[in-house]
Amino acid sequence: MAVSAIGLGRDYLYARLSANVLRDLRQLMFDKLQLLSMDFFSRARVGDVLSRFASDLAALETALANAVSWGVLPALDVLANTVLLFVLDWRLALIAMLVWPFCLFGPRLLAPHAVAASYARKNEDGAAIALVQENLISQPVVKAFGLEQTTRASFLERNARLARSVLRVSFFSSMVERSAGIGIMLLQVLVLAVGAWMAVRGEITIGALASFQALFLNLAFSLSYAVQYMPTLLQAAGSMQRIDELLAERPNVSDRPGARTLPLLEHGIDFEHVSFGYNADDPTLQDISLHIPAHASAAFVGTSGSGKSTMLNLILRLYEPNSGRVTFDGIDLREATQRSLRAQMSVVFQDSFLFNVSAADNIRLSKLEATRQEIEEAARAAEIHDTIMALPQGYDTPLGERGGRLSGGQRQRISIARAILRDPRILVLDEATSALDAESDAAISATLARVGKGRMVVSVTHHLASASNADQICVLDHGRVVEFGTHEELLARRAYYWRLWNKQSGFMISSDGNRASVDPERLRGLPVLDQIDASMLAEVARLFTTEQYPQGRTIVHEGDRGDRFYVIVRGSVEVLKRSDGAKNAGRGDQRRLAVLQVGDHFGELALLRHIPRTASVRTLTPCTLLALASEQFDYVIERAPQLRARMEHMHAARLASEASSEFGPVA
């Protein structure tokens, strides 16, 4: 009983040691992730990071669990038996010590290959997990484009590579174990032969030889235990190498020694000759200089890829300028602590991420010490209190994964309540309403305008109507500030902003968001309709019908018959084209040709030429479109025959250049 009790105590200590080591290592890894900059998360595969917490730690756990029984205790046995061998006969003991080169030569030669193979296998394992995760998230796209066979083929290839890595690891690990075992057996024969020869010559007694052989067999047995443990140790070494890589990552944005605490913003934010690029050879912002006064509202506008969101990233100090500086009241953000900077801010993102906790806890995230009364006041300000109270458990109702129990507009209002609760000096809006339907967009925009009073509000939007009331509008194009001023000042200049405004103007959406219409004169801004007289434009405007699509929905598929001409009234879409060699619609890799926004159009060429769609178009946000069916389109062409020549010319030019017009490529 005593032996059993001691054994149980020993097993408990082993288990506790292993659990504590893994706990500390897991905590180190998680803490490191909290310190890393956004550039790491933009290049890292989520599945690969998760595999470090799963399979890599599991390999270490196996190694630690077996370390004492298969490593430490056999090592102590080897040490004790070695001493006894020298006591019995030092000459035979010296021969027995050849066990080390015999055992270690093979593992020393093969172990580096085994560790490298284990490391490669873990990388392949992480890549496979990342691919599965990506496939789970992208199922709407997979279904919409018929990519089941393509994704299956991709995983088949990845799975085959993983299988080859597993085979390589297993083979090298077995070779390490086998080579050491062969050395031990050969040495056993040698020791027995030399001992028998010495016994025949009378240099050692038979009893001493038997004792020596028994001790040597015990030593060999202990060594074989350790050798069998080596494959587990080698796989753990590959896992530890990957964990070390994560722990060795250095954040690009970090607090400098002696960084100061920022005082509350009083005067404003300044960009001083700021240039920045996510890639060294591809600058996103070039020589930006501007001043945003405190207690003012500023909006960054421009086409997709102009650098709007990058400006916010620099203000939030998620990235740092390559040259120049961003200052708060004259203090370079690199000289201040990140915590004191972000403590003055609240952000409402386009994707209103909610956690699978209660509504109250989701709001409380911006101010952990907030009372229930403060939370409810913030919810009322965000006009979401009544919705929360209607939930089964009110504020204590879990909202589900990513807030799945709420609609898009309701999730965004929870995010707004979270932002209000902090009572920020600066309210940052990153396309805060672009992922909502028209009705929710209008309601949330009104709420944001109300809660933004008395604060600095910095927003990014591609919808100019949302920016028109800002105190300052910064117009960006290809990473440069091309215009700066109020809405009225910019329109008066009749330059870039004026053209963008005219492109987005002239569209009306009903209060319920279900019907859209267009001013006839706005149609004159479309190259395909710019030569029609006013009476004909009015007739064409009445022929358009309203179509609505959620985010991630494919409007037209490459290769399908063209039966609609579309004008974007709200939202944005991406135009995708199959890579060369893809045979079937929706199959093969696709490349993005362009992003189209409000005022852009597509689809006229397929109607005019009676040819299949030349590209696919997929929504990036919820979209409201005006559509002209093929019958109405043919009617317009018959009534205005000059349009055919005009569109034929456009089609020829586009085929020659394979480039989009000012209003985007046509599908």
Describe this structure in words.
The chain is an alpha+beta fold and about 675 residues long. The chain has three domains: about 15-250, ABC transporter transmembrane region fold, CATH 1.20.1560.10; about 270-500, 3-Layer(aba) Sandwich (Rossmann fold), CATH 3.40.50.300; about 510-655, Sandwich (Jelly Rolls). The chain is about 55% helix and about 15% strand. The protein has a six-stranded mixed sheet with strand order 6-7-8-3-9-10, with helices on both faces. Strands 2-1-4-5 form a four-stranded antiparallel sheet, with helices on one face. A four-stranded antiparallel sheet has the order 13-20-15-18. Helix 6 (about 100-135) runs antiparallel to helix 8 and helix 6 (about 100-135) packs parallel to helix 9. It starts with a helix and ends in a 10-residue tail after the last helix.
Query: Averaged pLDDT, please?
Result: 77
- Count of alpha/pi helices: 24
Extended strand count: 20
Number of structural domains:
3
Q: What is the CATH architecture annotation of the largest domain?
A: Up-down Bundle
By CATH's scheme, which homologous superfamily of the largest domain applies? ABC transporter type 1, transmembrane domain
- Separation, N- and C-terminal Cα atoms: 82 Å
Low-confidence spans: 581-588, 658-666
Radius of gyration: 35 Å
CATH class of the largest domain: Mainly Alpha
Which strand order do you get reading across the main beta sheet? 6-7-8-3-9-10
Helical percent range? 40-55%
Beta content: 15-25%
Short summary:
This protein is α+β, with helices and mostly antiparallel strands.
